[in-house]
Write a structure and sequence with these properties.
The chain is of the alpha/beta class. The protein is built from 9 helices and 10 strands. It has a 10-stranded mixed beta sheet with strand order 3-2-1-4-5-10-9-6-7-8, sandwiched between helices. Strand 1, helix 1 and strand 2 form a beta-alpha-beta unit. Helix 8 packs parallel to helix 9. It is elongated. About 6% of the residues have low confidence. It holds the Pfam family Usp.
């Protein structure tokens, strides 16, 4: 059984992520693991007579109480739901939680209608995206129905993105969703002619280990548009996509792949969830 992790601060935004994860779990026969990071220093857990220990225990008990209220929701009925409290805010340790609990997907929520712009730099969501070894699904709106039927995988199909492609391919297979691959061919200096595109895709799928590179190459839609970001949105609308899949480098996060206006447009203006996969 697959496991979905939902980090929470017990806010309305994190409940949006919980609702989305619950819908996915019901259709995918998955378990839910809800994580709260308390942000408690190890030194505060040393029992002594000062106020820090008393305050620490208060916050732990408060988190336990909040969990009781947060998880007491009718839409969780019939699902396997467990909870975990981590005392530290060291996001680099998140992969220990993922490994120990066999997590295959993280679901988080962005803040309001402005999308990821508010959380890309210096936020908990961005830090999870940066360190997580499993895909992270970032949603914007309150989930009302299950939508993971069609996903658009957009890439520059460079050698650097081969591992991300393999991870995405496995994700689509495991979660039984349809993968629509697209290469946005923009106007200007980044434009590639037919022969250049054919060579690029053949080399990519050959180095990715695909036995019949021509078959996979033919499954990539070449979408010409004035800009990459506009091409992503238009293609997603054309195929009625439910989410967009974007590779991201570990060190710089989303900004390393989505630069300039691309970062702003895709992250801020996407009206469908964005799934990030670390390169």
């Amino acid at each position: 059984m697959k496991t979905i992790l939902i980090p929470t601060d017990f806010s309305e935004h994190s409940e949006n992520a919980l609702k989305a994860a619950a819908l996915i779990a019901k259709h995918q026969n998955a378990k839910l693991l809800v994580l709260h990071v308390a942000g408690i220093k190890d030194s505060s857990l040393i029992k002594n007579n000062d106020e820090s220990f008393t305050e620490t225990m208060f916050y732990i008990r408060l988190a336990e109480k909040n969990f009781g209220e947060f998880l007491n929701k009718p839409y969780l009925k019939g699902l396997s739901v467990s909870q975990i409290i981590k005392k530290n805010t060291n996001f680099s340790e998140i992969n220990e939680v993922l490994t120990e609990n066999n997590v295959s997907l993280i679901v988080m929520s962005s803040h309001g209608t402005s999308g990821l712009h508010e959380i890309v730099i210096g936020s908990n969501t961005e830090k999870v995206i940066r360190y997580s070894n499993v895909p992270v699904l970032v949603i914007k709106e309150v989930a009302s129905q299950y939508k993971m039927g069609i996903g658009v995988y957009t890439s520059d199909f460079s050698e650097d993105s081969i591992e991300a492609y393999k991870t995405a391919k496995e994700f689509f297979k495991e979660w039984q969703t349809t993968m629509k691959m697209v290469y946005i061919n923009p106007n200007g200096r980044k434009f590639k002619n037919t022969r250049e595109l054919d060579l690029m895709l053949t080399n990519f799928f050959t180095k990715a280990g695909e036995k019949d590179s021509s078959e996979f190459k033919n499954n990539v839609t070449i979408y010409s548009e004035h800009s990459i970001e506009k091409g992503i949105f238009n293609f997603s609308q054309d195929v009625n996509a439910d989410f967009i899949v974007i590779p991201t480098h570990a060190r710089q996060g989303i900004a390393s792949i989505l630069k300039g206006s691309l970062s702003e447009d895709v992250a801020n203006h996407s009206m469908i969830p964005v799934l990030t996969i670390k390169i």
